C-alpha cells in the first residue's frame, strides 16, 4: 500500500501556545574538544569494525548490532553529560554508548567474546552490558523496554533529588512500541528529568521508517503528551552536542522530558546476519561519501589547521587500543563452569 | 404492602457492616435514586440508594449500629397510597432469602474490580463462597515468635498495609506505586492511610498503564530505590509481564551480578467471586517457573505481614501473590515491633501422620477444612503451607512425606504445569522410596473460570474433592 500523500502544511496540528525549548545552536567546540570528539568517534568505528571481523571469525556469537555510521549521536550527546551522575540507558545496539561513556574497550570486547573478564562476566553478551559505576544501565534486548526503564531511572533522579538526568536511547523501530507512550505520559505527568533520544537510522531491521510509521517525523511523537521534540542532524557531532545542551537546559530546569530525534544512518546491517536486500548499495555508499560523521569532523579539524600528519598518531593509537582489546578478548578464559549457577539471585534463601 | 429495605452487601464476601448514617428520617418522601443511608465496612463506604418511590414509614436500625447482618430489614417504605403510619415494624432478624439488589455501588467511582461484586449474590452458593468460608480456618502451626508474644486479631488487608507502612518508615527508598493506591486508598483498600502518612512523593497513583509503570518501577529499582508496585489484580500484570521477567528477573544474572533489582510486585491473584475468566487466574505457576524471581503466596495475616516485610527488604525481585477473598479474613498476628519471616520456608499448619496435604494461599484453608473433616473419619492429615513458591521448600515437603508416605497437593489454579505438578515431580525424583501411593493433584478444573454460580462451583477446588483424593491415596475410598 502506498503511503498517503504528505498533508498540506496548514493542516498540521497547531503548535499549542506553551513554552518550548529554543532552537539548538551548533556547538562551538574548541580544537581540543573537537579532537576529543574525533578520537571517540574513531574509537567506536574501529572497535565496531573489529567486532565485525571477530564475528566473522566465529569469536563472537549470537546477535551483534554495530553502531557504525551513528557515532556522532552517542559522542555528541554524551559529551554533555556527567559520567556517574547522569544515567544512560539504551537498547541492544549498545557498544557505542558504552565507549562514549568512557567504559574500557577491553571489558566490552571480552563480553562480546563471552569471556569471564567481560563486563557481565560473559553472561550477558553484546546486548546485555552494564556499568553501574558509570551509571550506564544497559544494554536491553527487548525493543522499547529501555524507555520505561529509563523513565524509572529518571524517577530515581527526581526522588533522590540527585541532580541527575537520564538519557534514554531508542530507535525508530522502538518508537512504535506501546510502552514508549505509556512512559511518555508518566514522564511528562511527573516531570521526570529524562531526555528521550530517538536514534532514527531509517530502518527498523529491514523496514524503513515510512513503511512502519504513520507519522514519520518522530520528533513530533511527544506532542499529544506535551513533550516538546527537536529534530537533529545526527551525522553532525556538533549539532548533536548543541541539541544536548538545549535539552539538558530544559530538563535540568525542571520542565520535564524532551525528545531528540537524531537523523542518522547505520552503514552495516541491522545485525551481523542481515542480508541487506531492503536498500541499495548505492544508497549506503552515498551516505558514506556525503555525510560520514567522522569525515565531517576531520574537515572541521582541517579548517582549524589540524593536519593529516597530526591526526596520524592519534589514529594509530586508536588502532592499538582496539587491537589490544581484541587480543585481550580472544585470550581471556571463558567463565568457570560454576559461574552457571551464580548471580541468579543476590541473596540465599 | 410496605417495601422492606434490607442491609445490602458491598461485596460477595461481606457478611455484616455498619449502618453509619441515615440521610432520611421517618415520614420523608423519597424517589428512586435518592441516597437513603451510608453503609461502611472495613473495606469501603457505600451510599445506599432508593430504588422505589414512597414514604419512609419506619427506620428499623438506628444509625451508628455496627455488625448489621446483610439482609437485615433496616427500614420500611410505604408506597404511594399506603398509610405510612400503619406499616408494621419488621422482624428483627435477617431473613434467609436473597436480598434484593437495592444498593448500587458508589457510581462516581466506577471501579472495575469492586463493581464485579454484585450484592445480590451474597447468599448464592458459589465456589468462591466455599473458598471464602474455608479461608477462615486457622492452622495450629507453632508461631515463629518468642513465647508469650501477644497476638492481635488483624485482617490480611491490615497486615499487608502495616507491613508496607513499617518498611516505609524505616527505609526512605521504599515507595508504593499503582492504580488507585493513593487518593482512592487502594482498589481493595490495602494501601489505606498510606498517602496520609507518607505523602504523594511516596504513594503514587499511576495511570492505567501496567506495562509502563512496571517498567518505571523496575528502572527505579535498578537505579537504587525499593519500589512496591501494586497491580490491581495480577490478571492485569499480564500487560507488564515482560518487565517482571525480562527486565526485573534476568538483569542481575545478565550483568554478572552488577545490576540489582530490589522490587516487589504485589496484588491479588487467583479466583475472585463471580468475575469471570479474565479476572480469575492463579499466576503462581507462571512466575514460579522463572529463575531470578522470588515468588511468595501467603495464606494468613501473620504470613502476609512477615513475608511482605521480608519481600520489601530482599535484594531480589519478588512477586507477592495475595488473594482477594482473603483480604477481609482476620487472624492472629504477633504484636512485635519488627515481625519478619524467612522467605523460602514452608510450615506445617496441622501435624498429622496418615497423609500429607500440600497447598498454598487460599488452598491452605480448603486443606485445613478437609483435614478437620477427615479427622472425624479417623484419617489424620498433615497440612503444609508452602508460603514461598520460588524457591520451593522441598525439604519440608519431603520430610512430611517420609512420615506419612502419602500425599495430595491442593491448588486453587489449573492442573497443567502447576505448582502441584512440580510437587509431584519432586516427590517422584526425591521421595519415590517413601511413597505408598501415587501423589494426587486436587486443582481447579482445566477450563477458564465460568461465570454461572453452579459452574463456578464445579470448577473450583473444595474440601470434598480433597477428601476424595485423600481417601484414594490412603486406600480408604
Topology summary:
The complex is a heterodimer of chains A (349) and B (477).
Chain A: H1 31-56, H2 71-78, E1 87-90, H3 95-99, H4 105-112, E2 136-139, H5 145-160, E3 166-171, H6 178-189, E4 194-200, E5 203-204, E6 207-208, H7 209-212, E7 229-233, H8 237-252, E8 258-263, H9 281-291, H10 293-303, H11 308-331
Parallel strand pairs in A: 1-2, 1-3, 3-4, 4-8, 7-8
Antiparallel strand pairs in A: 5-6
Helix pairs in contact in A: 1-2, 1-10, 1-11, 2-8, 4-11, 5-6
Chain B: E1 3-6, E2 16-22, E3 29-30, E4 35-40, E5 45-49, E6 54-59, E7 65-69, E8 73-78, H1 127-134, E9 151-155, H2 156-170, E10 174-178, H3 194-198, E11 203-205, H4 210-222, E12 226-230, H5 241-249, H6 251-254, E13 264-268, H7 284-288, E14 294-296, H8 301-313, E15 318-322, E16 330-334, E17 347-350, E18 355-359, H9 363-376, E19 381-385, E20 388-390, H10 394-404, E21 407-411, H11 419-431, E22 440-443, H12 453-459, H13 463-473
Parallel strand pairs in B: 10-11, 10-12, 12-13, 13-15, 14-15, 18-19, 18-21, 21-22
Antiparallel strand pairs in B: 1-8, 2-4, 2-7, 3-6, 4-5, 6-8, 9-16, 14-20, 17-19
Helix pairs in contact in B: 1-9, 2-8, 4-5, 9-13, 10-11
Structure overview:
The complex is a heterodimer of chains A (349) and B (477). Chain A has 349 residues and is of the alpha/beta class. Helix content of chain A is 40%, strand content 10%. Chain A has a single domain (27-330), classed as Rossmann fold (3-Layer(aba) Sandwich). In chain A, strand 3 (166-171), helix 6 and strand 4 form a beta-alpha-beta unit. In chain A, helix 1 packs antiparallel against helix 10 (293-303). Chain A has helices at residues 31-56, 71-78, 95-99, 105-112, 145-160, 178-189, 209-212, 237-252, 281-291, 293-303, 308-331; strands at residues 87-90, 136-139, 166-171, 194-200, 203-204, 207-208, 229-233, 258-263. In chain A, the strands form two sheets. Chain A has a six-stranded parallel β-sheet with strand order 2-1-3-4-8-7, sandwiched between helices. Chain B is α/β, with parallel strands linked by helices. Chain B folds into three domains: 3-123, RNA polymerase II/Efflux pump adaptor protein, barrel-sandwich hybrid domain (OB fold (Dihydrolipoamide Acetyltransferase, E2P), Beta Barrel), CATH 2.40.50; 151-334, Rossmann fold (3-Layer(aba) Sandwich), CATH 3.40.50; 347-473, Rossmann fold (3-Layer(aba) Sandwich). Chain B has a seven-stranded mixed β-sheet, with helices on both faces. In chain B, helix 11 (419-431) links the parallel strand 21 (407-411) and strand 22 (440-443). The chains are: A alpha/beta (349), B alpha/beta (477). Chains A and B meet through strand 2, helix 5 and helix 6 of A and helix 4, helix 5 and helix 6 of B.
